[in-house]
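Hey,
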Amino acid sequence: MEAAQAGTSLYGIGDLTALAGDTHKFESRYLDGLVGKYPEDEHLYKKRSPIESVDTLSCPILLLQGAEDKVVPPNQAEMMHNALLKKGIPTCLKIYEGEQHGFRKAENIQDALDSELAFYGTVFGMNIPEAVSLKVENI
């Protein structure tokens, strides 16, 4: 049995190597303490990047991302989404305009929660009354 049957990533990192070059100045050295110095420890960045382990994934994944996120830029979610699509894993990507790293607007927080419920309902074949419309690809 798998550890997870489905999951949601909220503004998560997909590729540490890309993030090392993309993140804003304030966060630029943050990864040094978490992962190692880049590029000297590039092998650790690759080893610990979810994008490098997509072949081990099999459960459906919902990706929720802020369009103006400067900590974990939207391209992280887009890269993961494309990799999941390519592997044939059921997935959905929702990008929230006006949001950064962590949702602040009440309507987006509510939509993110409703989207998770709709996603799990779709994945597990449950009827969710008045569920938000959500396009899950590869289902």
